[in-house]
Amino acid sequence: MKIGFVGLGNMGVAMARNLMRAGHEVTVWNRSPEKAEPLLAEGARRAATPAEAASGEVVHTMLADDRAVEAVTFGENGILSVPTRAIHLSHSTIGVPLAERLTKAHAEHGSVLVSAPVFGRPAAAEAAKLFVVVAGPDGAIETCQPLFDAVGQKSFIVGDNPPAANLVKLCGNFTILAAVEALAEGMTLAEKGGVAKAKLLEVLTGTIFGAPVYQIYGDILVKDVFRPAGFSAPLALKDMGLVAQAATDTRVPMPVLAVLRDHLLSTIAREGEDIDCSGIARTVAANAGL
Amino acid sequence: MKIGFVGLGNMGVAMARNLMRAGHEVTVWNRSPEKAEPLLAEGARRAATPAEAASGEVVHTMLADDRAVEAVTFGENGILSVPTRAIHLSHSTIGVPLAERLTKAHAEHGSVLVSAPVFGRPAAAEAAKLFVVVAGPDGAIETCQPLFDAVGQKSFIVGDNPPAANLVKLCGNFTILAAVEALAEGMTLAEKGGVAKAKLLEVLTGTIFGAPVYQIYGDILVKDVFRPAGFSAPLALKDMGLVAQAATDTRVPMPVLAVLRDHLLSTIAREGEDIDCSGIARTVAANAGL
Amino acid sequence: MKIGFVGLGNMGVAMARNLMRAGHEVTVWNRSPEKAEPLLAEGARRAATPAEAASGEVVHTMLADDRAVEAVTFGENGILSVPTRAIHLSHSTIGVPLAERLTKAHAEHGSVLVSAPVFGRPAAAEAAKLFVVVAGPDGAIETCQPLFDAVGQKSFIVGDNPPAANLVKLCGNFTILAAVEALAEGMTLAEKGGVAKAKLLEVLTGTIFGAPVYQIYGDILVKDVFRPAGFSAPLALKDMGLVAQAATDTRVPMPVLAVLRDHLLSTIAREGEDIDCSGIARTVAANAGL
Amino acid sequence: MKIGFVGLGNMGVAMARNLMRAGHEVTVWNRSPEKAEPLLAEGARRAATPAEAASGEVVHTMLADDRAVEAVTFGENGILSVPTRAIHLSHSTIGVPLAERLTKAHAEHGSVLVSAPVFGRPAAAEAAKLFVVVAGPDGAIETCQPLFDAVGQKSFIVGDNPPAANLVKLCGNFTILAAVEALAEGMTLAEKGGVAKAKLLEVLTGTIFGAPVYQIYGDILVKDVFRPAGFSAPLALKDMGLVAQAATDTRVPMPVLAVLRDHLLSTIAREGEDIDCSGIARTVAANAGL
After folding, report:
1. For the complex shown, is ipTM > 0.90?
2. Whole-model pTM?
3. Would you call B248 and D265 a contact, using CB atoms and an 8 Å cutoff?
């Protein structure tokens, strides 16, 4: 398929590469052009603008935050600045209000939005092992299915209204961080009581906690190594802010969310902006005097 | 093996029955004697006192709280009221200070304590699918291994100091409730945003949350049926109180624990004492006006 | 002095009236023009646009939120849409980023911003008993002093950088709600333990809690009457959102703030949008099963 | 009046001295006898046991915690170990269950308990400026009134059931710490936003926060000096534990209480056992990277 890919961070580069490997013809665009070099060397074409990247059948966007998605969509030379029939396949973790605005703008523009945020850290992106959460019109989803298969191990259709996928993704990121926080609190208690963190983790993952979320993050917590960040604390703070926005808009108190945001703030304040989100375990431990 | 079993609640009856099925000769004692009837009909012998139940090689205790364990151990006609060489195999979820006191009292008494709290709801106990977390002297653990195998699907040795097993068990129960709380908060957010709870759960368990803790409790939350209680809210509140005691004693702030305790209190205050601990989801939903 | 007044809600009408009583010549503007009627009857002049209201020496703005302040300042026919030398005296409770933006925009426009948010509920506004928190250039503050005296009982100069006043105001509103929350939690505990709320309040205000914040809100809590709202829960939620924004931007975890936001959300979800912010006491009580 | 005084810590010594100055004949007892020396030099008599201190009309107890009150009341040579008609005037901050137990034990013993916990730091005790919260039988309160007047500036009768006074006292200590926490969070936010803590405090205490609780603790927070402790963090943690016990027993969720306990734990873990309870401000600041 002839597709565009906008946004070449850690995740985006890996996804675009896997799309190329699956035989798709990929035109890329990134705000900092040098990020595109490796892909160009592997056969990608460079677009001069996001609009140009949207000249194929589908244009993927995979960007850091709402502002970046707004810029490439609504900005000068953005995706909606020219007539296009490309399906906008939005992988970024964005807020529900922006997803609603994108849905509406595409409808008015005569094009289609499919929200398809992904679960997985960079290693999973490289291995084409992402999970893709999808919402959008049936036909468009069908068209995009080979693209989901090229980047992920499984896709989930959660409805025909694109913002639903973003809400599910935000709930997922919240649940991940909540699992990390609970692990960190439990491990700190165990450690101060004389039980090794690794021993607690062995029991938990050997009983009813045998899920990747505990295995992946438990391992990071036991090793106590939080750099380089796979999913940085400031990005997680941004996501938790989007969750909070959705919670405020729909009047849902979420006390565990409040703990997570405070611990992300404290972790960033004390450890710096480059730490992984699982570094909240450092804050939990520091608060216990460790 | 000739063994005693003290404490015939939902969990205890199922465990004693599985021990009998595995060929052990079981003498039982319960404060309310009628709870023993079914087991007597199946061939168990009745002891007149906890002390009498401790006349075999091993005496199991499986009771609701610290006070009950203290009563059958230190009380009149308790396990330590007579000379005995029986290994005290303590399955109850008790606090670290009581586990320390039991360890010391047995040492002075010339007997041995093995802490072996279990993970699993009543259905798992009936199916002999419990997970057993064990700490105690090597030799005693070896002796008890067939008993662990009779009641559980797997056992974990976490050290030779019995209280370590109790601390691990408490950390586990904390992590379970934290997972339920996070699920409940996420589901409530999804629901108020127009995404069905079952859909969110499908995505979570299909990605990196594919552990029994999410499957078992997620299913309960989707069905919104919290009675009869498998693990009641007041019992969970008691456990979280034991976690808080350990956290206070070792100076460990645990903000998620605070949320759990408050939600258990609120759930009990609003729904009654007979609700399952996963009924905290009702409080999360009620707080959002659902 | 010849002044303009933009924003005629409960607070604004009372303030504008007191300015007229102090002898100032007041031109008023409000988005819904009918709100101006009473003041016109008392001698005020009506401006056709916010810009026209800024044709005197000073233009006051007293609006509900950031968006409204942006509209009357930066919007079509806004204060900055025409050349003006009027001091912009901003009384609204707005966020620090908007205060910074206003400061910069006025500097570029050749005019001056003075931030002067006020403490006090509508009754205090009517009685000209507000407290005015002021930050801005010295000369401008001197010019405005008679205006502060006309609406308030006392003014505090907190610096020459306008956003400082807004930050102090936000900290104040946070502290007010925190006092209400603590009172509500204490009163609920007392009540469920058999001590009347009024008795607890009598002791607290008779000892080291003899401040208006406890007297005013304690009285509301004892009476359990939260309508009509003097300071509504949605407005308080908006303010706490501004505090959270400042806290996020400067990396400050504020766990009590999280409790307040969750209780405001729950109060609005359960009681409706028209309840006073002190109605969080209803949520505290409901959570205890009262 | 002929009275006994049991418990000569910072608070007790100052209270006993003021009772002597008011003309009462005071017999003292303390576990560590050397603490009595200064009072003996000023004319007090030493009792050999708590029971002996209870041989007058009234016996005051002012001790650190539940355990100490239990020891001097129920222990060997304790107040209830001999027949006595002395009114037991209990000033300690104890839990509601112990107050209930004391009430019952005195009734069975034919004697009377009056609960009379006090508000005030050591400086207030020395200046006879305590506030006394009183509950007990009318006649006994009348008898004790001169004693309240000797140690305090004001007394409050909250009922005839002694535990009511203890509950009110616990609610008060909770409210004090909540005020300190809110101040600390607000000051940290102000400071990181460029506003001096002293400036924020000036505005707050100059408006609707003009109560001693803000003046006394605000001053400590501005100076950032938390040693020597007037009311130590471990004692405050004990008190908050008693509040939590009452809250658990009566099913009252108190989320701000949870924050306070976690911050006391963190403060003790990081700063040591000798810090004042207001040192929670250090934890708030540290969590913000200050």
Report:
1. yes
2. 0.94
3. yes
